[in-house]
User: Which sequence fits this backbone?
């Protein structure tokens, strides 16, 4: 049965599977969110990465940047680039999301969706380096986008939550092992959006 749910502004969490996602609207206040949207867009050394799609390489339809202090991890072996050093505002955000997440993070991936044509395709962040049940804290600023999740073994079991300016979404449980998520393109004429996913990368060899 189709379980796609769209909820109003205030009560979005009510319809979501609470064992895999927790949604907190207005986690960062309006003034701070406005400032972070502007300064992160302006000050981040954004990159558009090439990813392998079958036999060709394509540019990701969004810009990214990666920060962290994960000393001692062999990034080459993990197929990752070395992260940039934490900035003061990213460290401040990390301190805000950690008590709600219940763990400490050592890296953050920034995504910049320049308009409705930017997106991230269905995927899961099941990197062995985070373990199979990682907790990921996702903070959003700017244009509201729909975050869709669907069960891997039954694509009809899906939910959608609108990630608002200043919101926090906690991904947990088997969201990465049993589900996929995406930010779909939209034809709506919308402005830019920044998303930050705080992660705990662990070296599988230790
Ligand atoms: O932009 C978002 O809300 C999600 C980003 C995401 O899924 C990722 O970076 O792995
Ligand atoms: Fe993701």
Assistant:
């Amino acid at each position: 049965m189709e379980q796609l749910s769209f909820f109003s502004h205030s009560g979005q969490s009510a319809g979501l599977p609470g064992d895999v996602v927790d949604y907190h609207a207005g986690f960062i206040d309006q003034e701070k969110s406005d400032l972070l949207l502007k300064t992160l867009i302006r000050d981040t050394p954004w990159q558009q990465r090439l990813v392998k799609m079958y036999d060709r390489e394509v540019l990701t339809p969004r810009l990214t940047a990666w920060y962290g202090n994960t000393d001692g991890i062999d990034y080459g072996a993990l197929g990752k680039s070395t992260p940039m050093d934490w900035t003061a505002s990213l460290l401040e955000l990390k301190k805000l999301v950690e008590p709600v997440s219940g763990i400490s993070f050592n890296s953050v991936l920034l995504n910049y969706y320049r308009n409705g044509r930017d997106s991230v395709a269905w995927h899961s962040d099941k990197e062995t380096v985070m373990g199979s049940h990682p907790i990921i804290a996702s903070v959003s600023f700017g244009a509201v986008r729909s975050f869709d999740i669907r069960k891997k073994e039954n694509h009809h079991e899906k939910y959608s939550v609108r990630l608002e300016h200043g919101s926090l979404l906690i991904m947990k449980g088997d969201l990465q092992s049993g589900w996929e998520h995406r930010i779909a393109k939209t034809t709506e004429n919308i402005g830019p959006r920044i998303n930050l996913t705080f992660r705990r990368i662990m070296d599988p060899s230790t």
About this structure: The domain at 20-199 is CATH 2.60.120.590 (Jelly Rolls). DSSP finds four helices and twelve strands in the chain.
